[in-house]
Amino acid sequence: MKYGLLVDFGAPYCNYGDYAQSIAIEHLYESMEIPENEIIQISTKELATYDGEQLLLPYSYVLHFLVSPEDGRVALSDKITPVFLGASVEFAMLLNSYSLDNFFSPGKGWIEMFRKFAPIGCRDEFTYKFITRLGIPAYLQGCITNILPHRRDGIYKKVLLIDCPSEVLPYIPNELLANAEVLSNAEYIGNLSIQDNYIKIKQRYEYYRDNAALVVTTRFHVVTPCNAMGIPAIFTMRTFDKHSEDIRLDTLNPFIQLCSSENYSDINWYPQWQDFSELKTHITQLAIARIHEVYKRHTATSQIREFFQTRIDEYESVKNTELAYRTRLRDYIQKNYAIPVRGRFYIWGAIQLLCDGNNVVLANLVNENNPNLEFVGWIDTFKSGILANKPIQKPEGLFLAENEFVIVAAETAVPDALNRFNKMQINEKQFLIISNTMIEEADLKKVLAQKEE
Predict the structure, then answer these.
(1) 429 CA to centre of own chain
(2) Of the N and C termini of the chain, which has fewer Cβ atoms inside 10 Å?
(3) Taking every annotated instance into account, which residue ranges of this chain make up the domain Polysaccharide pyruvyl transferase (predicted)?
(4) Quick one: which of 183, 146, 126 has its CA closest to 60?
(5) Three-class SS of residue 317?
(6) How far apart (Å, rounded) are the C-alpha atoms in residues 427 and 415?
(7) Between the CA atoms of 384, 410, 388 and 336, what dihedral angle is there, to the nearest 10 degrees?
(8) Cβ atoms of 258 and 5 closer than 8 Å
(9) Are 394 and 350 in contact (CB under 8 A)?
(10) CA angle 202, 440, 155 (to 5 degrees)
(11) Per-residue pLDDT for the chain (453 aa), expressed as one digit of tens each?
């Protein structure tokens, strides 16, 4: 039996966070002294079709990579034996129409697979509770990226603003802004090979490790691995989020400062990194024990749970982001397209996870406020074809007639959309930015220039 490592996640738009978990598993293999020739790199597209030598695959990701898009059933090759280390049902917390109870109903294959490969290690408390309610043995592990090794002691100067909300910028002290750098932890792969893309992403995390004095980010798989590497980090919640419930937060490392738009003024911009090497040891030993199937679960899992308990206890007070999302949409429609107005609208960002078959949840939210508004299609720079029975068109072909408007749902599309709206002289009545607006390099330069005046 060989050891598997996921190094590609099957999408042209590359979220580095998925790969961060693979980087941690690769580090785990190094700790186990597994030779490179015993490790087979595969992609998520191969999970259902892999037909090579029997593969043991540590799985510490969201579970939707195992879903067949055709029927929602588990799609996993018999040649792959998964070891669930930090599984999560986070995908079902997005603003879509997935029902967990329906998704894991008999006949879908999930319950059978979980029972076969139990106990199931879970990344978050929510997933743990859900799986145990199904009568399946499970335990809480937390995110695998917590085990990444601490960097060397040194002098680090850069303040990295990684997919950071623009609203936080005025609160950052001048001396930190002087050393700030704006980055994103996601981008389109382009023509890179799978291997070259994986190497590039590893180098990005090495850049964080080797340069950052402080990281401020909305990305869970930036703040968690950076904190593991010894970088002081601040996690800023998105004001408008596609999560109806952000279950990742219930096992965010309690030492990481968590903030939202309601308490930006209270942020400690000079946090001291706190050692949690004992937790790293527990997670590492537990993961290795699971892979060897001779682990000591009763001791290690209780210690891990004890460590996360303060964050779990505090989780109920975390503000639900769906309310802000719905409120902004409602206010926009009531102001500009209230009943009995008739109109048409597009959604910028052909996002599969916002759909359940031909049911588009964002369109449904619009129609809850005014059923006379017709969803006519998608706008997307990088996609084409049909999604949820609606056409996808390029932004170059966009023309808005009277009582037509655009909802920008894709976070990465905001700068391009605003630029195009400006050139088309489209007024604010005809578009709504429902996603977050992140700090861009121009924003940073503008603020720095204003502070120098």
Answers:
(1) 31
(2) C
(3) 15-235
(4) 146
(5) helix
(6) 16
(7) -120
(8) no
(9) no
(10) 50
(11) 889 999 999 888 889 999 999 999 999 999 999 999 999 999 999 999 999 998 899 999 998 888 777 777 888 999 998 999 999 988 665 555 556 776 777 788 889 999 989 999 999 999 999 999 989 999 999 999 999 999 999 999 999 999 999 999 999 999 999 999 999 998 888 889 999 999 999 999 999 999 999 999 999 999 999 999 999 999 998 876 555 568 888 999 999 999 988 899 999 999 999 999 999 999 999 999 999 873 344 446 678 888 888 888 887 666 555 667 788 899 999 999 999 999 999 999 998 888 888 899 899 999 999 999 999 999 999 999 999 999 999 999 899 999 999 999 988 899 999 999 999 999 999 999 988 778 888 889 889 988 887
48: DSSP letter: T
Q: Is the peptide bond before 119 cis (omega within 30 degrees of 0)?
A: yes
Please state whether 107 falls in left (phi above 0), alpha (psi between -120 and 50) or beta: left
With tokens 């799985």, the residue in question is 59
Instruction: Quote the tokens at residue 296.
Output: 């000591």
Cβ atoms 326, 361 nearer than 8 A: no
Structure tokens at 49: 């079709």
Residues 377, 344 contacting (CB under 8 angstroms): no
